[in-house]
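Saturday, quiet lab. Running sequence design on the C-alpha cells for the scaffold JK sent over.
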C-alpha cells in the first residue's frame, strides 16, 4: 500500500466511447516561436489555438524531464505536489524509482521547487509568446502543472474549457501553453481541440468522470488532433474546448502546462463562473 501522505487519483482510467474523440483533422505546427507573427496571432484569434514545433530546445526538454524526475523521486522534500494514478495504488510502495515515475498522473505547483521548471515558465520566450496572444498585455503565470499519461493506465481528461476552473471575470484573456516532453501521438493521448469553438463562449460543465462538457455534446463531433514532437507546444485560449483520450499504448506521454493571464487580473469571480459554466440552476440535463 502507498504511504498515507501520498496523493493518489481517485478515478481509475475508464473506457470511454471512441466517438468522443472523432478525428476530423490533424494540426500542422508552425516551426519555432519566431513564427508567431501577425498572421499566426490572427489564426490564434480565429481558431483558439496554435501548434508550434521546436518551442523548446532539446536541452530545455531534457532539463524539464530531469526536473520532473527529481521532484517525483523526492529530491526536494518540501515538494508535495505529485499525484499518482489510481491503478498504481496497491503497488506504489514497492515500485523502484523508474517504475514510480511511470505511475504518475500529475505534478502541480512546482515552479518554486525546481529552478529548471521555473526558468521555463518565467522565461522570456514563453512570456513573450503569451503576451502576443493576449494583445500585448503583460502576462503573469498563475498555474503550473505537468500532465502525464503513463503507459496503459493513463486516464482520459474529458472535454472541457479551462476557464471553467478559473475564477477570472468573464472576458479576461487566458492563454494555456501545453508543452510535449515526449512525443505526443493520437495513440498515447495527444490533445484534441474544437477549432473556433472558443468564440461560442462558456459552456455548461458537469461533474461526471471529471468537471467536463456533456458527453452527448461531443459524440461524433469532428475534432482536430494536435500530435507534437518533444519540445512542441500547443498555445490555446482558455475557452477552447479540448480533451485527451486514455493512453492504451506502451509509451508514456509527459507534458508541461502553464497558464497565463494579464498581470493584475484577480480570481475573485467564483459566483459568476458557476453561473456561466455550472449546471446549478440551469434548465438542462446531461
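Result came back. Writing it out in full:
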Amino acid at each position: 500500500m502507498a504511504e498515507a501522505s501520498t496523493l493518489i487519483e481517485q478515478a481509475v482510467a475508464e473506457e470511454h466511447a471512441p466517438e468522443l474523440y472523432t478525428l476530423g483533422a490533424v494540426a500542422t505546427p508552425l516551426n519555432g516561436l519566431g513564427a508567431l507573427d501577425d498572421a499566426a496571432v490572427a489564426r490564434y484569434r480565429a481558431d483558439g489555438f496554435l501548434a508550434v514545433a521546436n518551442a523548446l530546445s532539446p536541452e530545455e526538454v531534457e532539463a524539464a524531464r530531469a526536473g520532473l524526475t527529481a521532484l517525483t523521486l523526492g529530491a526536494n522534500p518540501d515538494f508535495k505536489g505529485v499525484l499518482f494514478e489510481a491503478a498504481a495504488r496497491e503497488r506504489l510502495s514497492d515500485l523502484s524509482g523508474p517504475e514510480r515515475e511511470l505511475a504518475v498522473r500529475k505534478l502541480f505547483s512546482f515552479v518554486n521547487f525546481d529552478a529548471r521548471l521555473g526558468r521555463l515558465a518565467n522565461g522570456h520566450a514563453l512570456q513573450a509568446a503569451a503576451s502576443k496572444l493576449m494583445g500585448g498585455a503583460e502576462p503573469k503565470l498563475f498555474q503550473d502543472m505537468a500532465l502525464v499519461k503513463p503507459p496503459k493506465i493513463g486516464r482520459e481528461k474529458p472535454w472541457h474549457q479551462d476557464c471553467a476552473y478559473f475564477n477570472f471575470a468573464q472576458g479576461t484573456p487566458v492563454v494555456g501553453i501545453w508543452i510535449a516532453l515526449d512525443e505526443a501521438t493520437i495513440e498515447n493521448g495527444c490533445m484534441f481541440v474544437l477549432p473556433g469553438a472558443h468564440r461560442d463562449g462558456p459552456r455548461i460543465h458537469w461533474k461526471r468522470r471529471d468537471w467536463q462538457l456533456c458527453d452527448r455534446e461531443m459524440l461524433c463531433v469532428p475534432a482536430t488532433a494536435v500530435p507534437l514532437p518533444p519540445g512542441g507546444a500547443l498555445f490555446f485560449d482558455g475557452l477552447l474546448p479540448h480533451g485527451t483520450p486514455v493512453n492504451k499504448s506502451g509509451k508514456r506521454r509527459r507534458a508541461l502546462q502553464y497558464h497565463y493571464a494579464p498581470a493584475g487580473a484577480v480570481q475573485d469571480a467564483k459566483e459568476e463562473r458557476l453561473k456561466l459554466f455550472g449546471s446549478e440552476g440551469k434548465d438542462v440535463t446531461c
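Notes for JK: Residues 1-5 have pLDDT under 50 and may be disordered. The chain has one domain: 16-274. Ask whether to fix the surface positions before the next round.
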